[in-house]
Amino acid sequence: MTLFLLLVIAAIVLGIIGVAAEGLFYLLIIGIVVLVAALVYLGMHMRGSGRHQRMR
Fold it and tell me: What is the mean pLDDT of residues 38-55?
C-alpha cells in the first residue's frame, strides 16, 4: 500500500509541475502514466490478496 501511495503522490507532483511550467508538458504525460501504473498495481494487489487467505 505504501508503494501505491508513493506512486500517486509522484504522479500528482509531476502533473502539477507539468501544468505549471511552460515547456514541460511531457511531465504531465509521465504523471498520468505513473498514475495509471499505480492503479494497475492496486488492482493486481487487491485481486491477488483474496486468493491467499486461509480457510478456517
Answer: 74
Assigned domain for 32 exists: yes
Report how far apart, in Å, the C-alpha atoms of 36 and of each of 1, 21, 55 are.
15, 22, 33
Q: Does residue 47 register a pLDDT over 60?
A: yes
Residue 56 falls within a domain, yes or no?
no
The Cα 42–Cα 4 span in angstroms is: 7
Residue 54 lies in a domain: no
DSSP class of residue 53 equals P
> Total domain count for the chain?
1
Residue 43 carries which side chain, given as an amino acid letter?
Answer: G
At 54, the pLDDT band (50, 70, 90 cuts) reads low
